[in-house]
Specification:
By secondary structure, the protein is α/β, with parallel strands linked by helices. Helices cover about 50% and strands about 10% of the residues. The strands form two sheets. A seven-stranded mixed β-sheet has the order 3-2-1-4-7-6-8, sandwiched between helices. Strands 5-9 form a two-stranded antiparallel sheet.
């Protein structure tokens, strides 16, 4: 009797969470408005390290932006690359008046934050966009952020999917990104923003300076995105999302699972520095999902323990399939069961690995 009561409460909480997530995403994407052109001036800052082969793709994507070139500048900061990243970028941008390529000197902060900090200090416009050197923003990226800033948002983050490749690691990474993005955007729509991806991230320079830039995010070498967002939350800045069509920022996944798991562990390690409210919300969410998943292990004690597991799988498949296109993905729903179980197990693995992970800028 007691176990039945516990299962009922568990399923009720799981349903409430997922109904809230579905409702939030439905409102977010159904009622989104097309971006309107804006006269806002924007500075784009990119930290690059050993990106000789792919930096041309980023520059090409920025040149295709549906935004007046006189209204934006690009500052690419080469952070002591061991290859020809600086020379490659310099040669491509020689005749581009709104592009600047610089090298890092006298960084205040370590790793990527130090490079970004140097670039931001050199910007001449009041709004800043951040992306990575291995990214390819779609044509409406700048325009969509400009529209968000025109609507008085102090911080903005957008959708950043991974490109598809024929490998298991790529499939796992794309699903991980899809699942994480659904949670991040839904919770933010519900009034609980907690994370963002530096691949598509922006803020006003005024707001950035008010929170002392990266000064309070140095507990870890990571966190140039989500920990900065945590600081914005403390100051009650207005945080918005960019979800318009053709505003995605695509990038490649890691080539093997070891590199991918190191990347995820590094990112996961920043979560211990989130606010108490964010950690509590995420802890409840993940605990309910993990409990529902592992309920199947109690099957010897009764068939009723199958119920939370199957309800979870059915709801996950429904939500993921309904919104995956909105996040730039088209994954076969038949694979969702395997991928979702793998995702929940990886959460534990990445968290434990992140606790002892040695951060480095690579």
């Amino acid at each position: 009797m007691f176990s039945t009561y516990i299962l009922f409460v568990l399923m009720l909480i799981l349903l409430i969470f997922n109904l809230s997530i579905y409702s939030a995403l439905n409102k977010l994407f159904r009622f989104r408005k097309k971006s309107k052109g804006s006269n806002i001036n924007i500075s784009i800052v990119v930290a690059a390290k050993n990106e000789t082969e792919i930096i041309p793709n980023l520059i090409a994507a920025l040149l295709k932006q549906n935004f007046p070139k006189d209204n934006f500048e690009v500052i690419i900061v080469d952070d002591n690359s061991e290859d020809d990243t600086f020379l490659k970028a310099k040669s491509i941008c020689t005749e581009l008046e709104n592009f600047r390529i610089i090298k890092t000197e006298n960084k205040i902060f370590k790793a990527k934050k130090g490079a970004l900090d140097l670039g931001i200090k050199l910007t001449k416009y009041p709004y800043i966009l951040i992306t990575d050197a291995d990214c390819e923003p779609e044509v409406e990226w700048i325009n969509s952020f400009a529209s968000g800033f025109a609507n008085k948002n102090d911080f903005l983050f957008g959708i950043a999917p991974y490109k598809r490749k024929n490998s298991l690691t790529n499939l796992v990474a794309r699903f991980e990104n899809l699942r994480a993005s659904i949670i991040v955007f839904a919770f933010s729509k519900l009034g609980f923003p907690y994370s963002a991806a530096a691949r598509s991230f922006g803020f006003s320079k005024e707001a950035f300076n008010k929170i002392n830039g990266y000064e309070n995010t140095n507990a870890t070498l990571s966190g140039d995105d989500d920990l900065l967002l945590q600081e914005a939350i403390k100051f009650n800045f207005k945080i918005g999302m960019v979800t318009e069509n053709n505003s995605f920022v695509f990038s490649n996944t890691k080539n093997n699972f070891t590199d991918f798991s190191n990347q995820k562990a590094r990112h996961t390690s920043t979560s211990i520095y989130y606010s108490f409210k964010s950690k509590l919300l995420l802890a409840i969410w993940h605990l309910i999902n993990l409990t529902s998943l592992f309920s199947i292990l109690a099957l010897p004690y009764g068939n009723i323990f199958l119920l939370p597991f199957f309800i979870k799988i059915i709801i996950d498949t429904f939500v993921l399939n309904n919104f995956q296109n909105n996040f730039g993905y088209k994954i076969n729903p038949i694979l969702f069961i395997f991928l979702q179980i793998n995702y929940e197990l990886n959460l534990i693995y990445f968290f434990l690995k992140g606790l002892k992970f040695s951060n480095r800028w690579d």
